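In response to the reviewer comment on reproducibility (Comment 2.3), we provide here a single inverse folding case reported in full, input and output, so that an independent group could reproduce the run without further information from us. The C-alpha cells appear first.
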C-alpha cells in the first residue's frame, strides 16, 4: 500500500512533491512498544489534511486536493484542479456523511464526487489558516479576524466566539462572544458531531500572558476550559486536564467520534489527548527533522477508527498505537583480531586523521573519502574538530561521532567509512554527514548500535529500521523532563552527552543533569543525579557497576568546578573514587592515591574487564588501578574521548592534532611508569618536568604493509 502511494504521488502531486515512505515493523512488533508516528507522505510544503469515513486521506496544498485511499491509490479530486480562479484549495474538511468541503479565499464549497459544486457560501472573514471544520448537520466552522464563525446550510454566517474583551479566564461559563480569543496563523477549530467547538488560545490573550489554554464552546454558546491551568510547564498526565500544565502555544485540535480531543503542545513537543472523561494523556512525540523547528506542525486530523494524522510540513504522519519495539539479542563475544598485533604495550599509533588542519573552505570528509586510508583523511583542526564519543563494533570497526567532521568509522583494515545510515521511511532521521551530527554512540553485547542524535536515542540493528528508544528532542531549557514509569520516548533531555551499554544489554544515557537507565519495559529510571553537578560521561564494567564523570560546581571555594569520578554499585549509594582530594598538590611519582588528588575536567571514562579505569582529563589520560593508584599514561595534547576494545587497546581523540590514536594495552604495563622526576596534579593541572623522555614511547610499527595505520615517533607525553 505504502509503496503504491510513493509511485503515484511522485508524478501527480508535483506542487508539494509528495512521496510516500514505506516500510515499518511487523504487526507483532507494533503491538509491543509505545505509540510512534509513521511517515505516510513526504511533502515539501504545508498541506491541509482531512480523513473521510472510509479512511480516505485528503490533502490540500493551495492548488488542488488529492485523495489517497486505503490501497495507496492517489487521485486528484475533480473540480479542484484547476480550482476556480482566485479561490484555490486552501482548506479541506469531510463531514460525517463523507461529503467533501473545500475552502478558498472567497468561498467554502461542497464538492460532489464528479466535481460539481452542490453547495457554497461566501466567506465574510479571512481564514486564519486554510482549515475548516464541519459538524453532523453540515454546518461549517472557521476562525479568522479574531472571531469564530458558523456558516449554516442557508449560507448565513454567525459569530459564535470571540470579538469580546474578556480574557478566557474571566469569560469562563459566559457567552463565548464576550471573550477575546486571539487570532493565530494556525488558528484552527475542531467540532464534534454534536456541534461542540474546540480551539486553543495563545498565552498573549490570557491574564498576565500566562500559558495557552484549550477551550470549548458548548451547545448553549458558553465558553469552558478543556485543558491548562494558566501556568506554563508540563504536568497532569492521568489527571483532569483542567489541572494540567501545558506550554505557551497549543496547535490546532482535532476531535474523534468518541469525543477525544487531540492537540499539539509545542513547548513540550508532544501530541496530547483529553478523553471524554476529561483526563489528559501524552500520546507521542512528533519525529524530529534536522534543521526544522518543532513549530512546523500545522494540522491534526482523525479518521473514523481513531487514527490520528498530523501534518508537519516535512510530511504527513500517522500515529501507530502499538509502537515499534526492540529487544536485545543474545550476547555474542567479539572475535576480531588486534588492530596492531605486533605492537608492544605502551606504543601509540595513529588510527585516523592526517594531523594537519583543514582549509577554511573545506567542509570536512565527504563520500569521496570513503575507502581511503583513514590516516589520509583530514578530519579538522584542533580548534574545530572535537570527536565526541567513540565505540568499537563487534567486528573491530571503530565508530566515531564528531561535532565537526561528521560521524565516521575506521574499518578493521584502516579504511575511512560512514557507519550510520539515514532512515526517513518512518519519519526518523538518524545521522549522516550534513544532517544532525551524532552526539554519542554505543555498542551492545549483541552487536547492535545505539546512536544519540538531535535529543533522541535510536536502536540500530542490521537490516532493521532504526527504533527511537528514548527522548524526542532536546528540551528548550537546561533541565531534563524525565518521569519514571513513563515511556522513555516521551522524555526530554538537556542534551545527550554519552551512552553506554552494560554486559546485560541495559542502556545508560547521560545528560547534563543526570544519568538514566533504560529499563526493559521502555521506561527510564534515574541512576545518578546530584545537586550542583554537571554530568559528563559514563561507563559500565563487567559487574554492571556504573562509572560517572562529573563536575562538582558546589565544592570549589573559588567559584570553579572540581572533577569527580563516581562509581554506582548495584543497590548502593554513589561513591567518589577519584577526585575527592582538595590539597594543592599531590606527588604522583610512582603513582598517587585516587582519593587524594584534585581531578581536572574528566571528559570521558572507560573501564576494562578487570575494573581498571581510564580517565580523559582534557590534557592527558589517567589510569586508575583497582587498588586506587592513579598513573598518567598519555600526556601530550588535548585528549578527549576514550574507548577500549576487546584486547585492552585504548583509543583516544587528540584534539590538538585532529586525530584519533590508540595506546596499545596500557593495562599490561607494570608500574611505576618511567617518570624521571616528580609529577604533580594540582588544581586540575598536571605539570611534568624531566630531563629526558617521559612516559611511554610512541613507535612506528604495527602489521607490515598496513599503511593506513602509520604511526609517528613522538613520545606519548611531553618532553620539557
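Designed residues, in position order:
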Amino acid at each position: 500500500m505504502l509503496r503504491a502511494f510513493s509511485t503515484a504521488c511522485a508524478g501527480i502531486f508535483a506542487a508539494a512533491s509528495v512521496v510516500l515512505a514505506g516500510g515499518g515493523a511487523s504487526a507483532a512488533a507494533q503491538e509491543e512498544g509505545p505509540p510512534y508516528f509513521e511517515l505516510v507522505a513526504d511533502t515539501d510544503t504545508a498541506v491541509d489534511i482531512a480523513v473521510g469515513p472510509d479512511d480516505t486521506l485528503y490533502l490540500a496544498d493551495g492548488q488542488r486536493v488529492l485523495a489517497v485511499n486505503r490501497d495507496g491509490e492517489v487521485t486528484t479530486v475533480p473540480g479542484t484542479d484547476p480550482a476556480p480562479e482566485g479561490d484555490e484549495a486552501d482548506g479541506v474538511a469531510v463531514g460525517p456523511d463523507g461529503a467533501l468541503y473545500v475552502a478558498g479565499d472567497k468561498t467554502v464549497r461542497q464538492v460532489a464526487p464528479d466535481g460539481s459544486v452542490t453547495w457554497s457560501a461566501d466567506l465574510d472573514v479571512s481564514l486564519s489558516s486554510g482549515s475548516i471544520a464541519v459538524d453532523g448537520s453540515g454546518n461549517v466552522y472557521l476562525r479568522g479576524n479574531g472571531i469564530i464563525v458558523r456558516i449554516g446550510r442557508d449560507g448565513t454566517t454567525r459569530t459564535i466566539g470571540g470579538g469580546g474583551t474578556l480574557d478566557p479566564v474571566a469569560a469562563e461559563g459566559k457567552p463565548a462572544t464576550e471573550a477575546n480569543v486571539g487570532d493565530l496563523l494556525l488558528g484552527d477549530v475542531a467540532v464534534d458531531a454534536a456541534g461542540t467547538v474546540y480551539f486553543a488560545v495563545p498565552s498573549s490573550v490570557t491574564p498576565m500572558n500566562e500559558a495557552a489554554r484549550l477551550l470549548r464552546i458548548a451547545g448553549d454558546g458558553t465558553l469552558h476550559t478543556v485543558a491548562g491551568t494558566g501556568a506554563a510547564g508540563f504536568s497532569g498526565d492521568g489527571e483532569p486536564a483542567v489541572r494540567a500544565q501545558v506550554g505557551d502555544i497549543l496547535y490546532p485540535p482535532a476531535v474523534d467520534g468518541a469525543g477525544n480531543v487531540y492537540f499539539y503542545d509545542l513547548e513540550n513537543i508532544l501530541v496530547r489527548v483529553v478523553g471524554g472523561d476529561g483526563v489528559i494523556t501524552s500520546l507521542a512525540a512528533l519525529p524530529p527533522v534536522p534543521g526544522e523547528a518543532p513549530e512546523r506542525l500545522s494540522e491534526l486530523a482523525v479518521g473514523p477508527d481513531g487514527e490520528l494524522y498530523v501534518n508537519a510540513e516535512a510530511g504527513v504522519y500517522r500515529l501507530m498505537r502499538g509502537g515499534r519495539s526492540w529487544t536485545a539479542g543474545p550476547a555474542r563475544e567479539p572475535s576480531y583480531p588486534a588492530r596492531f598485533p605486533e605492537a608492544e604495550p605502551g606504543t601509540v599509533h595513529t588510527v585516523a586523521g592526517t594531523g594537519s588542519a583543514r582549509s577554511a573552505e573545506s567542509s570536512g570528509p565527504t563520500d569521496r573519502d570513503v575507502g581511503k586510508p583513514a590516516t589520509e583523511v583530514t578530519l579538522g583542526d584542533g580548534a574545530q574538530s572535537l570527536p565526541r564519543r567513540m565505540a568499537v563494533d563487534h567486528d573491530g570497526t571503530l565508530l566515531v561521532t564528531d561535532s565537526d567532521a561528521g560521524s565516521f568509522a575506521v574499518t578493521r583494515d584502516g579504511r575511512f567509512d560512514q557507519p550510520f545510515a539515514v532512515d526517513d521511511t518512518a519519519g526518523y532521521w538518524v545521522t549522516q554527514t550534513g544532517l544532525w551530527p551524532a552526539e554519542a554512540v554505543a555498542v551492545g553485547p549483541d552487536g547492535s548500535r545505539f546512536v544519540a542524535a538531535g535529543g533522541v536515542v535510536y536502536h540500530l540493528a542490521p537490516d532493521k529500521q532504526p527504533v527511537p528508544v528514548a527522548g524526542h528532542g532536546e528540551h528548550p531549557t537546561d533541565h531534563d523532563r524525565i518521569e519514571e514509569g513513563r515511556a522513555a520516548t516521551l522524555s526530554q533531555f538537556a542534551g545527550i552527552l554519552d551512552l553506554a551499554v552494560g554486559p546485560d544489554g541495559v542502556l545508560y544515557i547521560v545528560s547534563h543533569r543526570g544519568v538514566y537507565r533504560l529499563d526493559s519495559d521502555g521506561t527510564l529510571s534515574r541512576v545518578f543525579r546530584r545537586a550542583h553537578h554537571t554530568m559528563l560521561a559514563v561507563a559500565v564494567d563487567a559487574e554492571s557497576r556504573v562509572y560517572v564523570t562529573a563536575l562538582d560546581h558546589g565544592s570549589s571555594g573559588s567559584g570553579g568546578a572540581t572533577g569527580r569520578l563516581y562509581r554506582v554499585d548495584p543497590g548502593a549509594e554513589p561513591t567518589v573514587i577519584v577526585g575527592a582530594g582538595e590539597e594543592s598538590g599531590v606527588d604522583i611519582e610512582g603513582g598517587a592515591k585516587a582519593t587524594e588528588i584534585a581531578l581536572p575536567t574528566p571528559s570521558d571514562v572507560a573501564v576494562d574487564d578487570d575494573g581498571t579505569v581510564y580517565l580523559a582529563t582534557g590534557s592527558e589520560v589517567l589510569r586508575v588501578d583497582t587498588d586506587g593508584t592513579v598513573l598518567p599514561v598519555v600526556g601530550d595534547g588535548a585528549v578527549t574521548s576514550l574507548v577500549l576494545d576487546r584486547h585492552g587497546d585504548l583509543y583516544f581523540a587528540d584534539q590538538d592534532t585532529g586525530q584519533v590514536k590508540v595506546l596499545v594495552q596500557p593495562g599490561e604495563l607494570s608500574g611505576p611508569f618511567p617518570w624521571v622526576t616528580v609529577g604533580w596534579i594540582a588544581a586540575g593541572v598536571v605539570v611534568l618536568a624531566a630531563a629526558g623522555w617521559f612516559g611511554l614511547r610512541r613507535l612506528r610499527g604495527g602489521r607490515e604493509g598496513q599503511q593506513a595505520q602509520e604511526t609517528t615517533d613522538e613520545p606519548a607525553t611531553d618532553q620539557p
